[in-house]
Specification:
The chain is an all-alpha fold. It has one domain. 61% of the residues lie in helices and 0% in strands. It contains three helices and no strands. It has helices at 12-31, 34-42, 47-50. The radius of gyration is 22 Å and the shape is elongated.
Length: 54
C-alpha cells in the first residue's frame, strides 16, 4: 500500500491575509459586548446592575 503524500505550499502573503482576516473577526467578536457595558457605565449604572444582561 502506498502512502499518500502532499506537498502543499502557502505563500507568506496568503498566510498574512488569512491572519489579518481571522484576527479582525476575533477582535470584533471579543469587543462586541463592550459598547453596551460602556453605555450603561457612562449613564451612571452600577457594574453589578448589569449582571447577566449582556
Amino acid at each position: 500500500m502506498a502512502l499518500w503524500q502532499c506537498d502543499l505550499r502557502v505563500s507568506w502573503r496568503s498566510q498574512l491575509i488569512s491572519l489579518g482576516i481571522h484576527g479582525g473577526i476575533m477582535l470584533v467578536i471579543l469587543l462586541a459586548p463592550w459598547p453596551a457595558v460602556a453605555r450603561r457605565l457612562l449613564a451612571g449604572m452600577d457594574v453589578a446592575a448589569i449582571g447577566g444582561d449582556i
